[in-house]
């Protein structure tokens, strides 16, 4: 294994870093330097050799102690590499991280990282392959989801894309669902991802043409991530978010994309089961 070092983000060659993430078999949007810059400017990175493998470290300091953890909107953390990494190499990455900070808590899908820790909690989310025709996805739906979507339709909710960052941030402000700091981060992340043609904001509107729910989707590596959702009390009562997600699935069915529902915490499991989504484990890992 080549030399491993830790660098602050200002000293990182972001072109080489992003190239490594882009070429990684397990690559996702959460590893890109522009995403990390948008979400948490103080991040640092573990780098092997000439960026053959990298791992982001979102670092905070309190009373002289360094903490590494997932921050808001940074759903998952992983090691990204051009090639397959052995378990021993992953262990070296983690030992490097532990030498840097004694307080590390990360979310990851990487089972090898989970197996290298003695403090692991397993959780579950769902993914849906959108390659199937929409009628096949809807064909699997049963009583629960039909009831939610029919409720949305009967309440004259309609949906649209092309919502600007100010729309989702204003709704998040009005619903008091985010702190002021996270509102600013959401605005920045939405704008940057949309400039890169990777981000989309979909919205649900009531019969008075008022935005009552919105979702920020960001795509990378043929994966679509639900990064942020927000809804008013009216939207909750009228099941608007169920209809909005169904609308997104309809618009993107028959595409080589996988929709990851990790950021969708308010839905009942019946919804995912009835559309044929696959359950997968993710891990909260402490070192």
Task: Please tell me about this protein's structure.
The protein has eleven helices and 14 strands. The chain is α+β, with helices and mostly antiparallel strands and 287 residues long. The protein has helices at 14-23, 33-39, 87-100, 111-115, 134-139, 143-154, 165-174, 180-195, 233-237, 240-252, 269-274; strands at residues 4-8, 44-48, 53-57, 59-62, 65-69, 80-81, 103-108, 119-129, 158-160, 199-205, 211-220, 223-231, 258-260, 278-286. A hairpin with a 5-residue loop joins strand 10 and strand 11. The chain is globular, with a radius of gyration of 20 Å. The strands form two sheets. It has a ten-stranded mixed sheet with strand order 4-5-7-14-8-13-12-11-10-9, sandwiched between helices. A four-stranded antiparallel sheet has the order 1-2-3-6, sandwiched between helices. The protein folds into two domains: 4-117, Aminopeptidase; 125-280, Gcn5-related N-acetyltransferase (GNAT) (Aminopeptidase), CATH 3.40.630.
